[in-house]
Amino acid sequence: MLEYLSQLNPYLAVIVTAMLPLVELRGAIPIAIGAYHLSPLLALGLAVVGNLIPIVVLLLLLERVTKWLRALHPSVDKWFAWFFAHTHRRHSAKFERWGSLALMLFVAVPLPMTGAWTGTLLAYLFGIKFHHALVFISTGVLIAGIIVLLASLGGTALLTI
């Protein structure tokens, strides 16, 4: 994958990196600054845009794709039922207490398995409507991006922005 990304224009490489699940902007911002020497604000902007591209597509298609996958075979449907019930149990208390703000906070924490991809799945599981989910996920992505940017810049963060 790194070989493929190195062939791309640096801006496009950062966007594509931010689009990847698990990597998201947590990997894209340090790469943008460290490998491509982009300005911090440009790195943040490209990473946020790249992170949100698949999220819009997922928010629009996740319900249809899930229904199609569940119809493939009873064992697939059983796995989805278990996975959705398990995820709902793990996060329902937070959503009951905080509502959609919990979605934003979940996405904003730049730790493994707390990014925009997982937040999109949670929005689907908790029935959060497209526009509402997009606003809260986007806000969480921006907050996570700022946290990652500041961590990437270290102690000189405020001087270089």
Automatic annotation (TrEMBL):
It holds the Pfam family Sm_multidrug_ex. The keyword Translocase does not apply. Keywords: Membrane, Transmembrane, Transmembrane helix. The keyword Transmembrane applies. It comes from the Bacteria. The chain crosses the membrane at residues 12-35, 41-62, 98-127, 133-159. InterPro entries: Sm_multidrug_ex. PANTHER family: TRANSPORT PROTEIN-RELATED. This is Small multi-drug export.
